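Entry for the shared binder. Reason: the reviewer on the internal report wants the predicted structure included alongside the sequence.
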Amino acid sequence: MKSLKKEDLKQEVFDLYDDYAHNKLDRRQFIEKLSLYAVGGITVTSLLSFISPNYFDNLVVKPDDKRIDSEYINYDSPKGGGTIKGLLSKPKKKSKKFPGVIVVHENRGLNPYIEDVGRRAATEGFISLAPDALTPLGGYPGNDDEGRTMQRKRDRNEMLEDFIAAYNYLKNHKNCDGNIGVVGFCFGGWISNMMAVRVPTLKAAVPFYGGQPSAEETAKIKAPLMLQFAELDKRVNAGWPDYEKALKANNIEHTAHFYPGVNHGFHNNSTPRYDEPAANLAWERTIDFFKKKLK
């Protein structure tokens, strides 16, 4: 069997995976269309295996990393799902309070990649909370296919309330100094934008390839924004011109970065959509932004 590399995949394969990951294709349709690219010694099985997430071989900060304390907690979300589980991570230092970061998952629940991002934030000097919006349905089920199916059963505005409740929990945490930002990916990018709309005391928001608010909603934003986009992500990028116009019309502080030649999900190092130079630069910018704004 041919050993696949990212360069072996045509852009159409990444586009297919994007459609599948965002519920435009069911699994049968996805595999059927994927089979068209199983040529020259490449099998459907090898294609599917290569493009699917491989979480545990790609963790950047392991759960037992000695630099941080990390544990699951539960918090109240009375306007959302009731009680929500999340991963709380903070630096080992005991004698100070830390700025906070809410880490928002994609459209499949709190998977190992998002937990890893939460721990990465802790190693940078933040106390982070990565909630699982699937908690009312039993939590992230251990695989993304079932996670996506479960998340479709929840109302996205109710899930937004869960992340606003996470902000309130973290703001009042004994180890948080009350200065809080949010970073989110895909669905979490939309949540990050909407938290900037809904939470006037939010200090910063960094949406990665996230859906945009309406012009009326945008006018309510107080927090500075850093927006991370993938050049090849036509689906999400289509909404940027109107969003940019509304941000400028309301004099909202914002910076947008477009990373050339990369796909939606380029920060997620568990799939071949990952682009290491772009991901590293985007994360470095994110951390620098938080260090400037969360004080």
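Summary line for the report: The first strand starts at residue 68 and ends at 77.
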